[in-house]
């Protein structure tokens, strides 16, 4: 069973102040992981991770990551505002969106964020939107998102690049850089995102190789010399007990080797390596803490929790596996088989199906692991469910509420109940 950063006594203490269900993040784990990542890529001058805000859009977490030099990868208005509130601006923000509304381009422009274009038609759309004057490009960086199509093999979650709606073809990319250069843009980057929850380090190293080679081609064909390549996010985490975490040091060394060959070796100017991971930054350090509310026996054994898929949608959405730990029963044998359910009127509202667990009773804690990314963030209000609180377990063992739970007033705030 997974080792947790808290035991049952600690949960009792926390739950006295904050009723279950809640999400809790382990600050110590997040910090150690961020520091480790910085070290693995320290060979690259200017390396930066832009935390994918959508994974855990909480400024308290973003602020911790900012201490390690991390920026923010934003793709919507609210995410841009979250980055702004965290104190980030300019080159610390990558704005990578698709099907982009005008006001979001305006906001990204106002923040002087790195604007990453998803399509060649977004270039005239951006110009029309922000109407840059001569001199406005000074200090700003423009970026293009590359979709390698059939040149890059598929990935289990994100699918095949040629079926993905994101990014430009190679030809469009070259044309877009040429147009931007002609219009006076001075600083450039290149981006791709072709992985999701990938555990094979070679896939990530290959992505870097692909972009390094493309940087040389862009220089040769358009005269544009890039400042950075951003290999995207998508580094996976071991949700299942039989999976292994990606070895970041191995990835760091592999990309360093590719850099020596394809960047330094080809006489290109130094390139900064950027990444925009979400899952592997906070995923393993967040837990959904729930309690067993009902035990039910029909054709199967059910343990009904006080949480549901509006607190963590991944199992219902992707059939994703999340380990479940029962604090206080860590030593007990996993002799029973349960479907662990939530209360939504959807039969796929199950955190685990036919899972071997210790004998469960009403009132037991059920801690659902690896909920720190794409967890609370995917919450929704279907079935009029309310989203839970987010707590931070600090390094000194104290707990800080970093988002309160929603109330019925929040739910009803958008309805006019007086004039029905
Ligand atoms: C979702 C997303 C990420 C982060 O993905 P993870 O799997 O959480 O690392 C990064 N960049 C873009 C453009 C994304 O859409």
From the structure above, extract its key features:
420 residues, alpha/beta, 17 strands, 12 helices, 8-stranded parallel beta barrel, binds pyridoxal-5'-phosphate, 9-stranded mixed β-sheet, TIM Barrel, 2 domains, Lyase, Ornithine Decarboxylase, Chain A, domain 1
Mind sketching the topology for me?
Layout: H1 8-17, E1 22-26, H2 27-40, E2 48-52, H3 59-66, E3 71-74, H4 77-85, E4 93-96, H5 102-110, E5 114-117, H6 122-130, E6 141-146, H7 170-182, E7 187-192, H8 201-222, E8 228-230, H9 248-262, E9 272-275, H10 279-282, E10 286-297, E11 301-305, H11 314-318, E12 324-325, E13 336-341, E14 350-357, E15 365-368, E16 389-393, E17 399-403, H12 408-412
Parallel strand pairs: 1-16, 2-3, 2-9, 3-4, 4-5, 5-6, 6-7, 7-8, 8-9, 11-13
Antiparallel strand pairs: 1-10, 10-11, 10-15, 12-15, 13-14, 16-17
Helix pairs in contact: 2-9, 5-6, 8-9
Question: Your description of this structure?
Answer:
The protein is an alpha/beta fold. The protein contains twelve helices and 17 strands. It folds into two domains: 8-22 and 284-412, Beta Barrel (Lyase, Ornithine Decarboxylase, Chain A, domain 1), CATH 2.40.37; 89-277, Alanine racemase (TIM Barrel), CATH 3.20.20. Strand 8 (228-230), helix 9 and strand 9 form a beta-alpha-beta unit. Helix 2 packs parallel to helix 9 (248-262), helix 5 crosses helix 6 and helix 8 (201-222) packs parallel to helix 9 (248-262). The model has no long low-confidence stretch (mean pLDDT 96). Pyridoxal-5'-phosphate (PLP) binds at residues 52, 54-55, 73, 96, 193, 196-197, 232-235, 276-279, 373.
């Amino acid at each position: 069973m997974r080792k947790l950063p808290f035991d049952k006594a600690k949960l009792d203490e926390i739950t006295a102040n904050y009723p279950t269900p809640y999400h809790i993040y382990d600050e110590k784990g997040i910090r150690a992981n961020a520091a480790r990542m910085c070290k693995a890529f320290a060979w690259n001058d200017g390396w930066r991770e832009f935390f994918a805000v959508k994974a855990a859009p909480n400024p308290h977490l973003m602020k911790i990551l900012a201490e390690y030099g991390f920026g923010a990868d934003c793709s919507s208005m609210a995410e841009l505002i979250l980055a702004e509130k965290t104190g980030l601006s300019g080159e610390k923000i990558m704005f990578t969106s698709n099907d982009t509304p005008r006001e979001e381009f305006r906001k990204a422009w106002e923040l002087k964020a790195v604007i990453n274009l998803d399509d060649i038609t977004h270039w005239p759309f951006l110009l029309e939107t922000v109407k840059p004057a001569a001199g406005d490009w000074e200090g700003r960086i423009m970026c293009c998102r590359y979709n390698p199509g059939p040149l890059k093999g598929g990935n289990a979650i994100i699918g095949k690049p040629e079926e993905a709606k994101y990014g430009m073809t190679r030809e469009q990319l070259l044309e877009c850089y040429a147009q931007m250069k002609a219009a006076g843009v001075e600083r450039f980057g290149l981006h791709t995102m072709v992985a999701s929850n990938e555990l094979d380090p070679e896939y990530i190293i290959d992505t870097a190789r692909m972009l390094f080679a493309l940087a040389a081609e862009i220089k040769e064909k358009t005269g544009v010399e890039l400042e950075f390549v951003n290999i995207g996010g998508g580094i996976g985490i071991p949700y299942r007990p039989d999976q292994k975490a990606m070895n970041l040091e191995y990835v760091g060394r592999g990309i360093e080797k590719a850099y020596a060959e394809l960047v330094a070796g080809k006489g290109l100017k130094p390139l900064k390596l950027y990444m925009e991971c979400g899952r592997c930054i906070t995923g393993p350090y967040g837990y959904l803490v729930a309690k067993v509310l009902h035990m039910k026996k029909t054709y199967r054994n059910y343990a009904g929790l006080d949480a549901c898929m509006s607190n963590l949608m991944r199992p219902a959405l992707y059939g994703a596996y999340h380990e479940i730990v029962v604090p206080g029963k860590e030593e007990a044998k996993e002799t029973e088989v349960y479907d662990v359910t939530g209360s939504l009127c959807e039969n796929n509202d199950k955190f685990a199906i036919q899972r071997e667990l210790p004998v469960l009773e009403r009132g037991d804690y059920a801690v659902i692991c690896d909920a720190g990314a794409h967890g609370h963030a995917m919450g929704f209000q279907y079935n009029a469910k309310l989203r839970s609180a987010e707590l931070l377990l600090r390094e000194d063992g104290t707990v800080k509420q970093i988002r309160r739970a929603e109330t019925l007033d929040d739910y009803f705030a958008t309805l006019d109940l007086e004039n029905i």
